[in-house]
């Protein structure tokens, strides 16, 4: 396998694109050797769902598309980023706020930490942002995927 592999897809900011993004990432990771049924695969699907839902719901129509980037670096680190063109960065709501939604970033951070990864946000040159998740990639390293 190459030292660096990457794939990306740009989709319309539409709720239907969330499932398309999730399937796309699952297909890419299967091609890179992630076995069917791997526990980390379920976490990744949920992370992608939450990140892409945020890109659709919280850009208030100011980002007509979003891009999902998937990178495998030296067969050690899997990075998944979701980029939109809205300038507002994600915020964690206070625990006391009673809402039916708004907990996506808490879920994403927890899933990333549970898998030994981390979340970061970086600005884009166009004034938007990319929300990144970096996870250890243990596929093919002789140990089971968490």
Detailed description of the structure:
By secondary structure, this protein is of the alpha+beta class. It is built from 3 helices and 5 strands; from the N terminus they run E-H-H-E-E-H-E-E. Strands 1-2-3-5-4 form a 5-stranded antiparallel sheet, covered by helices on one side. The longest helix has 19 residues, at about 40-55. The protein is globular. The two termini are about 20 Å apart. The model is unreliable at about 140-145 (pLDDT under 50).
Q: What key attributes describe this structure?
A:
146 residues, alpha+beta, five-stranded antiparallel beta sheet, 5 strands
What Rg do the Cα atoms give? 15 Å
Helical proportion?
Answer: 25-40%
Q: What's the mean pLDDT score?
A: 87
Count of strand segments: 5
**Secondary-structure element order, as H and E?**
EHHEEHEE
Shape: globular
The unreliable regions are: 142-146
Q: How many helices in DSSP terms?
A: 3
Largest sheet: 5 strands, antiparallel
- In the sheet with the most strands, the strands line up as 1-2-3-5-4
Termini separation: 21 Å
- The fraction of residues in strands falls at 25-35%
Short summary of the structure?
Helix content is 32%, strand content 27%. By secondary structure, the protein is an alpha+beta fold.
């Amino acid at each position: 396998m190459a030292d660096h592999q990457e794939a990306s897809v740009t989709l319309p900011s539409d709720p239907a694109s969330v499932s398309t993004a999730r399937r796309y990432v699952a297909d890419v990771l299967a091609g890179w050797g992630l076995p069917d049924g791997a526990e980390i695969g379920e976490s990744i699907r949920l992370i992608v769902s939450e990140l892409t839902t945020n890109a659709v719901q919280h850009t208030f129509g100011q980002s007509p598309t979003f891009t999902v980037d998937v990178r495998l670096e030296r067969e050690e680190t899997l990075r998944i980023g979701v980029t939109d063109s809205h300038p507002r960065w994600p915020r964690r709501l206070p625990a006391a706020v009673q809402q039916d939604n708004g907990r996506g970033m808490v879920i994403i951070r927890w899933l990333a930490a549970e898998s030994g990864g981390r979340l970061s946000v970086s600005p884009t040159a166009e004034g938007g942002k990319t929300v990144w998740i970096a996870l250890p990639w243990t596929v093919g390293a002789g140990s089971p995927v968490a």
